[in-house]
Design a protein that fits this description.
Blueprint (H helix, E strand, L loop, with lengths): L6 H4 L9 E5 L7 E7 L9 H4 L1 H9 L3 E6 L10 H15 L1 H4 L1 E11 L1 H9 L11 E5 L11 H8 L5 H6 L12 E7 L8 H13 L3 E6 L17 H17 L1
Parallel strand pairs: 2-3, 2-4, 4-5, 5-6, 6-7
Antiparallel strand pairs: 1-3
């Protein structure tokens, strides 16, 4: 089923807009690194069905604890509410690290579509909060400018957004050398979020000297999730490999 052909399956329209952290823990008595996952949904909903749970379960199989965040959306999506929810989730995970068997060193932050914008903007210097060693951005909204996803911008900043906020939330304009390492990917057939969002992010990371792996898959549309059965299949393995390289580098 193509989720974009059945929006009732793709979007959980009836879910209340509120903070909730779902845990996918490896309960073997050992500590494991963790990933915090931010599904997309245009800042209107949280698409856990394809961009949350599948990632978490795949990461569990690779030996990582995972968490999926339901952040505030719809009328409660105004900046900085979603970013504050990410900060709250990180704090909750760190405070329960012993209880949940979590290794807090070298954690990663994953975001898809509008959740990618949330992850990418959370990592900016202007937002003072604990940062991951690696951020993974999947067909992400990056800019709030000309090539943005209009619905995502409207929910986050309002339909009559102040130009200063549009600039502030255009992530590609604010990448510094201290930005976390990044794995960034999309498909060139994405008709919902312009693939140039991924390209401009990769360019900004390169110009700032930030380690990154930026990939554009041929023929892949928006909402590809794990990309099973397509040329994008295996992107998660590649992202984990990149993350592990950065975790190792951060310890040296």
């Amino acid at each position: 089923m193509d989720p974009m052909e059945n929006k009732e399956a793709y979007y959980d329209f009836t879910r209340p807009s509120r903070y909730e952290l779902q845990k996918y823990l490896i309960n073997d008595g050992k500590k494991h690194p963790f990933a915090l996952i931010l599904p997309g949904g245009a800042y209107a909903v949280v698409c856990n069905f394809i961009e949350g749970k599948p990632y978490a379960e795949a990461l569990n199989k690779k030996g990582y604890n995972a968490f999926v965040l339901y952040y505030r959306v719809k009328d409660e999506a105004r900046y900085p509410n979603p970013q504050d929810d990410v900060k709250r989730a990180v704090g909750e995970i760190f405070s329960h690290a012993e209880e949940w068997g979590v290794d807090t060193e070298g954690w990663s932050l994953w975001g898809s579509s509008a959740g990618g914008h949330l992850a990418a903007s959370y990592c900016l210097d202007s937002y003072e909060a604990p940062k991951p060693v690696t951020v993974v951005l999947c067909y992400a909204v990056i800019t709030m400018g000309e090539k943005t996803h209009p619905e995502s911008r409207d929910f986050l900043l309002g339909q009559d957004a102040d130009p200063s906020m549009i600039d502030r939330m255009s992530v590609e304009k604010h990448i510094t050398p201290s930005y976390p390492s990044a794995y960034v990917w999309c498909g060139d057939a994405d008709e919902l979020v312009d693939p140039d969002n991924t390209r401009m992010m990769g360019k900004a990371l390169d110009e700032a000297g930030v380690p990154n792996r930026t990939v554009v898959f041929k023929g892949i549309p928006h909402g590809a999730s794990l990309g099973t059965g397509t040329v994008a299949e295996g992107w998660l393995d590649d992202a984990v490999e990149f993350w592990e390289e950065q975790r190792k580098a951060s310890r040296n």
